Amino acid sequence: MSIGYACLTIGVRDTDFKSCMLKNVSEAKLIELIGHNLHSLEKVIDYNLANRINLFRISSDLIPFGSSPANPLPWEEIFSAQLQQIGLKIKQSGMRVSMHPGQYTVLNSPDAGVVSRAMEDLTYHARVLDSLGTDVKHKIVLHIGGVYNDKEKAINRFISHCRQLDPAVKRRLVPENDDRSYSIEEVLEIGTRLKAPVVFDNLHHAINPSADKMSDADWIKQCQKTWQSGDGRQKIHYSQQNKEKKPGSHSDTIEINEFMHFYDSVAGDNLDVMLEVKDKNLSALKCINCTAADKSIKYLEKEWSRYKYTVLERSPAAYQEIRRLLRIKTEYPALAFYTTLEAALQSPLETGHAINAAQHVWGYFKDVATANEKETFLKNINHYQSGNTGNGSLKKYLWKMAVKYRCSYLLDAYYFIF
DNA sequence: TGACGTCAAGATCCG
DNA sequence: CGGATCTTGACGTCA
Q1: Is strand B within 7 Å of residue A258 (CB)?
Q2: Second label for A51, Cα 20 to 30 Å away, from A249, A291, A299, A384?
Q3: Which 195-224 residues of chain A approach strand C with CB closer than 7 Å?
Q4: Per-residue pLDDT averaged across A38-48, rounded?
Q5: What DSSP designation does A327 have?
Q6: Protein A211 CA to nucleic acid C4 C1', in Å?
Q7: A250 and A242 Cβ atoms separated by less than 8 Å
């Protein structure tokens, strides 16, 4: 089983994606943006490799206006060296990538213009995966689309439009159930007719269930039948409901105990699990560390190095508890570690604890900082302590110091993110 | 006609 | 002027 995340990273330097508004598009601008984004993608792939993350969804925003006439550039050729280099890293590491056009790519619309733009968009996605030199196991996941008061006709339109797609798209296309219109049962029917593999999404299924009641694990087994050996391992999407938001909203983080319950229910299946969650790579690392065969405490220590000041400012008690958990180097208390971590990150921020954590971080600079810098730090502390503001600017200042003094330990810390 | 979802760009405000 | 915060854009469907 591989576990992965979608599109963006949290807390990884130089992995941001840039875009521009349609009215500001120019060739020079596009070339600058594409170059920047490919550089970011390579950094993401490097990060994934260094953190044993083998599953990743590439953002549709990689090439700005990639499916629009606004971008007529032959970017595969212009950036072929960069693309090949990234593709080589993907191939040599055995990483599996995918893409997933959003809710606005609608292949089954009754509007011919919408359909032709959807086809252009799918072609663009295949161009990206082809230009990286990835084989057809690297999929493009797509929703069925709208209903238009006649689901049978809408389904038939989806199928007939799929059959008209360029083979480069068709061989990668994988339909997925959605949370309002097409249940997993309906998508399985469509996938079977198209001989296309089907992605099961657990949260969509919970909100938009099939008439035929089965457990998630059983639906996953049904979907398994649509995956041929040439398609690679069966893929599913896994997410959890954000309890503060409306049904279907993804949670901020994957609650590890809930995930493990699900994991145990599908443990016999050979699955790739794409997480859809706000904290992206952070949850992927969490789930990987709790399920990986290699149970070396060094993976938890690495996590601790990134989380520790965030935990310290939320809960000094949890900080001590995790230090205790990680003391015995022959053990691997991954579940206890992440459970304690989750609880700590949900604790309300107390000013005193936040100042204590800030002073710990300041410890990295107190011997090298100039008199002015010390004064600025104290000013920030006092300003925060006065209670008129959050500790955002205090953290920003500490971040500036970490960059200036190239404190690599701090530069990877989640403390500056949340 | 606005809500839906998503992210960064652009715009505006503030000290 | 820099930094913080608010608004817009880009997409299609549905109530």
Answers
A1: no
A2: A249
A3: none
A4: 97
A5: S
A6: 50
A7: yes
In Å, how far from its chain's centre is CA A151?
A: 32
For the CA of A19 and the C1' of B7, the distance in angstroms is: 9
Nearest nucleotide to A246 (CA to C1') is B4
Specify the residue for token string 């970011």.
A40
Sign for the CA dihedral angle at A277, A226, A109, A136 comes to: positive
What is the full DSSP assignment across A217-279? HHHHHHHHTT--GGG-SEEEEE--B-TTS-TTPBPSS--HHHHHHHHHHTTTS-EEEEE--TT
Q: Cβ(A297)–Cβ(A331) under 8 Å?
A: yes
Check pLDDT > 90 for residue A184.
yes
pTM here is 0.96
Q: How confident is the model at residue A385, as a pLDDT? A: 85
> Shortest CA–C1' contact from A390: which nucleotide?
C4
CA distance A125 to A69: 15
Please state whether strand C lies within 7 Å of residue A68 at its CB atom: yes
> Is nucleic acid strand B under 7 Å from A250's C-beta?
yes
Strand, coil or helix: what is A211?
coil
Determine the average pLDDT of the residues in A392-410.
Answer: 90
Nucleotides of B under 7 A from a protein CB: 4-10
Nearest-CA residue to the C1' of B9?
A: A20
Whether A17 CB is under 7 Å from strand C: no
Nearest to A59 by CA among A82, A34, A76: A34
Which domains, from first to last, does chain A contain? Answer: 2-291 (3.20.20.150), 297-345 (no CATH), 351-411 (no CATH)
A302 CA to C15 C1' in angstroms comes to 49
In angstroms, the CA of A23 and the C1' of C7 are apart by: 17
Q: How many CB atoms lie within 10 A of CB A236?
A: 22
